[in-house]
Specification:
There is one protein chain. This protein is of the alpha+beta class. It folds into three domains: 6-96, Irregular (Ring Box Chain A, domain 5), CATH 4.10.1030; 98-207, Ribosomal Protein S5, domain 2 (2-Layer Sandwich), CATH 3.30.230; 219-298, Orthogonal Bundle (Arc Repressor Mutant, subunit A). Helices cover 43% and strands 15% of the residues. It starts with 5 loop residues before the first helix and ends with a strand.
Length: 300
Amino acid sequence: DVGMPAEFIIKLQQMFKDLKLNRDMNEEFRTVCPSSRNNNTMMDSFSFKILSAAAWPHPGDKIDVSLPAQIEDVLPEIEEFYKKKHSGRKLTWYHTVSNGQLTFTSKNGKYDLDVSTLQASVLFSWNHRPTNKLTFSELKLATNIPEIELKKTLWSLISFAKLKQQLIYYEPHVESYQDLNEMSLFWINYDFTIIRAGKIQTRGHINMIQRLQLNTEKGREEENEEIMFLRGERTKEAIVKIMKTRQRMNNAQLQTELIEILKNMFVPSKKLIKEMIEWLIDHRYMARSETNISEYVYVA
């Protein structure tokens, strides 16, 4: 008799249990999630998996990445929902093993793209500036992806072997991802199409997810902190500029105007905005209104 080790069987049982629990949890979450009640259409196709760390293979180092606003807003809701069911447990999001599907519209048609979270973050960098050419430095600030991972992710979008036309063009030409540098320029190819049997396809589906060997150097954490520091400084500067002009604003108006100012560099998360507002209040650049807690007043 040759049987599987007991430890392997226990892990396998936990994996199946996790998958069943996640199906039930996703269904329940959609019924109580504020984003669902607020008609967030993404929720119809959005799903999450909460897996036991002891049972599943470790996905590697955690990488922070800028997510689309609709997803960024949902994650805290998932955490709150989960904590109510399992107090004392901590969730860690591993975006490098997540993926999604985007619909890309070019001059030739509409194409469904299966992309990794890192690829999606890069593509969303053009959301508010669709025709701009962006430098590597600008993309690093917009995505919050550390340098080596960003180079590999960009390479998967500019030199995808299965495509005759690439989704993103760049200059100057280099031979590998390692040769991309701070001055490399990237832009969206709006003439993009899928060609099959010599014919242009107006609709199509492409799986662009590649297995990238991500960097594990310790220096990446320091680099990520530098990007976050720079984002914080730009956010504080923009808030002060807005408040100096407006003198008095409510929170919703401030966030809307702030995103409008910063969108050509990056889209600040609600968490970052809240932290920078608190910093500015603590350092007396602005204050909360005495009559309305959701309103801010500029302090000269």
